[in-house]
Give the backbone structure.
Amino acid sequence: MGLIMSEKDEIIMSLVHYFITEENYTPIVVKGAKDEIWLENMDGPYKVVRINSNHIHNNEQLEYDILKTKGVLKQIKKKTFSMSVNILNIFLDINKVPENNYKNMDIVYIDSLKSVPQNKILTSAFNKIKTNLSTEEIDIEQIIQKTEDVNNKTQKKNKVYEDIFKPKTPIVTNIIILTCVLYFILMAFNTNGNLSAYNLLKYGANYQPYIKSGEWYRLFSCMFVHASIIHLLLNMYALKIIGSQVESYLGKIKYIVVFIVSGLVGSLFSAIFTKTVSVGASGAIFGILGSLIYFTYHYRIVLGNSLKYEILPVVIFNILIGLFIPGVDISAHIGGLIGGVFVTMAVGVPGKINKRSIINGTICTFMLLGFLSYILFFYI
């Protein structure tokens, strides 16, 4: 069965099908855009692909179109917390093809599907476009098939997002909180409430001389020791709020890895930069905050401005508090924050798995742990 479609419509359908099913792009809604399709993939060779089927008949109209496109890119850059956003601007109907002299923007003119495999910009950016883009005339069966392919791809992405963001019981977070509370009760009972530095050391506090003498277990045990009921309540409240969220996003196993490794990095920072007794889960909690920063950055299209206006201000505020309030182990906080980012990169963000990022994150995490361990045990 045949179907009459304009060549322009065929190009649009084939390109959209290719970018969504093969290159993992997602459609985005742009206000005021008519006869344009906008696609985004923050991990792609171009973060944004725009397909414009409007007729561009002179240089003045082209310059206005480019100006409008740059305005949209500014909004995307703000929303995604990106330093720069590069765009592939595909024109389907233009009298004169402009030179590619625009910053962060490559312009491509496509007058037929058969010209796509010969386009150097497209083939250099997208390796599969020569073989996986259909260049044949589209009939009704192909329209149905391409539509189903796009819908299936979109449904799979929506299912991933639904699984990640749906509410879940924070089992691991609750176990960590219960462990800290029970351990605090045990310490308070056995010391008659006298939680002096001496007694905290008996129960696993972080202390550089003891760690250097071989009691390395303190780098882990100190995460579950707290110096007062106020200290315990503040940390457990923060852990309940932030930890529950990150556990829901990452899953239990990855969350455990983030908590332990970032807490270890925080303890190493504390042992290197402070010579006093240090206790508390705050290093690991800041690690969870670092994990949340990394996760939110990868889902900034979905979560909007929450990274810029909610998460980062909380992190900065808490670091500033640590700088001005005596007794706060700011080195553990900063170390945990850095460790949380690296270890989350290593375990990977669900739905955004990138092998290169996982390899880089794993290398960075082990290099950081190795460097800090060398400084602690062999340098100072």
Remarks:
- The two ends are 80 Å apart (CA to CA).
- The chain has two domains: 7-164, 168-379.
